[in-house]
Write a structure and sequence with these properties.
This protein is 76% helix and 0% strand. It has 71 residues and is an all-alpha fold.
Length: 71
């Protein structure tokens, strides 16, 4: 792997990590500005990518509070 490809991979993985963190904040905490349809899509994606059971439980609690089915 060339240094340029390595740097690009590191940059892109950092961006993905930041994006996932932002999505996590949007779906783990009460955020009434997001419509339920968008919340459902973001929450399902976040749950698929997250390995932290505490975070997954927080997202499911928000979904239950909103009345959104994540199945």
């Amino acid at each position: 792997m060339t240094p340029e490809v390595y740097e690009m991979a590191m940059d892109l993985s950092t961006r993905v990590g930041k994006l996932l963190g932002t999505v996590g904040v949007m779906v783990k905490y009460d955020n009434p500005d997001i419509p339920n349809f968008e919340f459902r899509q973001l929450a399902k994606t976040y749950i698929e990518c997250s390995t932290n059971q505490f975070d997954i439980d927080a997202v499911r609690a928000q979904a239950h509070k909103r009345g959104v089915d994540l199945t």
